[in-house]
Amino acid sequence: MLATVRPKGLPSRRSSVAPAAAAGARTLHPIEVRELRITKAVIPAAGLGTRFLPATKAQPKEMLPVLDKPVIQLVVEEAAASGIRELLIVTGRGKRAIEDHFDYVPELEEVLARRGRLDLVDQMRQIGSLCRIFYVRQKEPLGLGDAVRHARGFVGEEPFALLLGDEFYTGPVPCLRQLLDAAAGWTGCVVAVAPVTEEEVERYGIVQPAGPPGGPGSVWPLADLVEKPQRHRAPSRLAVIGRYVLTPDVFSALEDVGPGAGGEIQLTDALRLLAARGRVAAFQPEAVRHDVGDRLGYLKAMVEEGLTRPDLAGEFARYLAERLGSLTPATPAAGG
């Protein structure tokens, strides 16, 4: 169990939300901001990481580095910067490295201190002090909904945030902070969404707005969610991305829907049930999304991070310009 550090300099929790814009649209009733003060979050991290084999054969996919930080550290940093005080990570077999990463390592700190690397000592201590972190093991990979069910004892009757560990965001205001501020005006669940291309809709859960959708920064109710629809059947081109605010009634909804295809319990099925009751809204954050759930997305994220690092950007940009000067997507680099 790790110590709590309250993040400083957070933006105000006040947020303007857009009401349903069409007659007949489902209405979610606003409540007082203080009643929805969310300080707990859940990160599912029990997946097998098969898309990155053999790299993930003996290490968690969540520990794959983006430059010098593992992906899950970037996600935890976002949660801490958004005001999350307590965090539950749902792990599985072979995930012990995650717990070790967020623990203190006095022996390493002593070696670094003797070598005069006090800057690194401070960095190592900060990793262990982001927020209080708890762990529970999901014994079988039975879907995202089952991972969420494991959090019931942790969150109790409080609303909570859910962050998927295969994507991270960059921008002046943390993505989760934006979502929490937006959710303060609604009694139900709020899912983060982002526009996708027609070719991408078959890879995501796609939302069906209950009325005309709002733009970035607004909240609007949903009529339904469709998991990985065919292009011509997609109700919109707005995809659910890996940030959610969930209310405790999601647990009863998960029990009601039960196992789906492959025996897995899907969070989307539970959200569809709640959407039919007018209990789910969407919010489009203003942040840059980095999807590291597959190899190409991971590679893109690595390049983008390298180009934003002051200590690497200049030389790395020159290398890319030299290496790719005459290269086209159809012409792989020699030896690549």
Oligomeric state of the chains in view: single chain
**Main β-sheet: number of strands, strand sense, barrel status?**
9 strands, mixed
Give me the number of helical elements: 11
Low-confidence segments:
1-34
Indicate the radius of gyration in whole angstroms.
Answer: 21 Å
In words, what does this structure look like?
It is a single chain. By secondary structure, the chain is of the alpha/beta class. It contains 11 helices and 13 strands. It has helices at 71-81, 96-101, 106-114, 118-127, 144-149, 152-155, 175-183, 249-257, 267-276, 295-308, 313-324, and strands at residues 40-44, 65-66, 69-70, 86-91, 132-137, 160-163, 167-170, 189-195, 205-209, 219-227, 238-246, 280-283, 288-291. A 9-stranded mixed sheet has the order 5-4-1-6-11-8-12-10-9. The chain is globular and about 60 Å long.
